Amino acid sequence: MNFWQNRKIFVTGATGLLGSWLTEELLRRGAAVTCLVRDWVAGSRLLSNGVMAQTNIVHGELEDYSLLVRALNEYEIDTVFHLGAQTIVGTASRSALSTFEANIRGTWNLLEACRACARLIQRVVVASSDKAYGAHEQLPYTEDMPLQGRFPYDVSKSCTDLISFSYYHTYRTPVAVTRCGNLFGGGDLNFNRLIPGTIRSILHDEAPLIRSDGTFIRDYFYVRDAVAAYLQLAEQLPDERFMGQAFNFGTETPLSVLEMVQLILKLMGSASLAPHVLNEASHEIPRQYLDCTKAKQMLHWRPQFGLDAALHETIAWYREHL
Fold first, then answer.
1. Which one, out of 52, 61, 128, 209, has a CA that is 20 to 30 A from the CA of 284?
2. Predicted model pTM
3. 178 φ, ψ to 5°?
4. Is 153 a catalytic residue?
5. What is the pLDDT of residue 44?
6. Which of 120, 49, 129 is nearest to 83 (CA)?
7. Fold of 8-181+220-251+296-303
8. Which of 133, 141, 153, 220 is catalytic?
9. What stretches in the chain show pLDDT beneath 70?
10. What is the DSSP string of 230-264?
């Protein structure tokens, strides 16, 4: 049987990279999807491929508690994917308050709304981030490591995690948390991120820009693998073994920023374009990558895309849309 057929799903952050791909897959599997949309993002895949027209749209913000209760109640939601957040590290550093409002207050508002509609809600999957761990000397990150974000975005995700677990332990809200590596894929319109920015520069025959010194290490995670991970985790709820748990999802193949740019240059046949290293990044963690043993053992999950294949698909999307 199709687990998702006719299930009533609420997706926050639906116009974003992960939200648009997740919404599309849920619709393909027969779910009835309601999306919380704050801004009309003209280039979002949710709009450009006609997906939004197949969903219910609730216009509003995570900061509006009454709106969230109304949406969950009126659309009789049983499954919540909380992806909505201010996700750009630079934006968070420039405006900590708006980031904390969306990411922290938005999370407790949504979970409190789920508690108010507890008779309806069967599962809640909350998007945290590998940034929630903060800087650690020992890597890779495992789920039992302390959450010690220091900079505004990282702190907002540490708080997202802790608030989620508080609702599980106090109110038995059927919540689980994901901590993913750096997501990438077609449809990411935040061109100050490394992968879309690099691809766009190469398509314009310009030198890719590296904001850092190029040595920062990250775990890059393809959006289609992320969608599969979210769905696989959600299908286990409200099983007691999975509620109140966090799961790392990534490729476990960390690369430096410079290595990623050089790989994209190679795949796009533009190895002669030398990246321009700005060395001006601040308020970022130098080294981050994940151990995904827990997800592999408990969920029997594995990423399905190799890095080269994922990048080829991503590059093809930008070639077509740019």
1. 61
2. 0.96
3. -105, 140
4. yes
5. 85
6. 129
7. Rossmann fold (3.40.50)
8. 153
9. 1
10. HHHHHTTTT-TTTTT-EEEES-S--EEHHHHHHHH
